[in-house]
Design goal:
The protein has 281 residues and is an alpha/beta fold. Helix content is 36%, strand content 26%.
């Protein structure tokens, strides 16, 4: 069984038009998706002291996600308001991660020993991790995935890329030639395997020698919330399984990309990133 740890953000996604909210946040989603895919998973993040935080903790426990290394701080948990436009989620007001933004994770020696017991680490630009903590995660010797989303800056790319093994970037709306050039740039900065996700146009991976294009799978789209996180989760777990099976090169990348596309299509049919609707507060 593969083991994944997600370090970073948990929020509630509020849908005012529907009167409900759902657990969410990049790393919370990844940790739950890993369980759905049959892996052992953990979430290491910061919970606030409000009802949203308690609800998220309860959902993680129900889903079988390990949360023993999480922090608790006084204050509002993270939230983001969401509007659905033809099934595509559009973010509105948010509170910058709540306590996750106010109390960024500082990894302890005990945390690092714990993290070394996993097969893969997942983090993102939304995790509010200080850049020096990303370097520390990389020093654990466990493959580190980092989602730059579309919120990166050139400076952040330069500083972080050398310390991640898989760099995911959102390139929706960017043409294919520019996407290829961007992945070459990211690889030159020190990221061995950059991956561009392009929504309904699929994904593109560059390993320093070759490009691998993955078409999107057909999906009945209800809500695109979690599509990127689900792609990343399935990709990472398939990659970890492939390493254990002795796969490498094109064989392992093709399988990982296909797994990501299949699972992302499935998640697009779900309301909210992981379900578990709650009355809007």
């Amino acid at each position: 069984m593969e083991k994944l740890i997600a370090v970073g953000l948990n929020v509630v996604d509020k849908y005012p038009a529907l009167g409900v909210m759902y657990p969410g946040g990049n790393e919370l989603n990844v940790a739950v998706y890993a369980r759905w895919l049959g892996a052992q998973s953990a979430f290491l993040g910061v919970f606030g002291s409000d009802g949203a935080a308690r609800a998220n903790e309860e959902v993680l426990r129900k889903e079988g996600v390990e949360i023993s290394h999480c922090r608790h701080e006084q204050g509002e948990n993270g939230y983001a308001e969401v509007e659905l436009v033809n099934g595509d989620r559009v973010f509105g007001e948010f509170n910058d991660g709540g306590v996750t933004g106010r109390f960024p994770i500082r990894l302890t020696g005990e945390d690092m020993r714990y993290i070394r017991g996993f097969d893969v680490i997942s983090a993102s630009i939304n995790s509010r991790l200080p850049e020096r903590e990303i370097e520390r995660l990389h020093s654990a010797g466990v493959p580190l995935s980092y989602d730059f989303s579309d919120r990166y800056t050139p400076g952040h790319l330069r500083r972080v890329a050398p310390h991640v093994d898989f760099g995911f970037v959102s390139c929706s709306g960017m043409d294919w030639s520019r996407t290829e050039a961007f992945l070459r740039e990211l690889h030159a900065l020190g990221c061995p395997v950059p991956v561009a996700t392009r929504g309904s146009e699929g994904a593109l991976l560059f390993d320093g020698n070759s490009f691998y294009r993955q078409p999107a799978e057909k999906a009945e789209v209800v809500d695109t919330m979690g599509a990127g996180d689900s792609f990343i989760t399935a990709f990472l777990l398939e990659y970890a399984a492939g390493v254990k099976a002795g796969l490498e090169g094109e064989a392992i990348y093709r399988k990982a990309l296909q797994a990501g596309a299949r699972f992302a299509a499935k998640i697009c049919g779900l309301q909210g990133a992981i379900g578990h609707p709650m009355p809007l507060r």
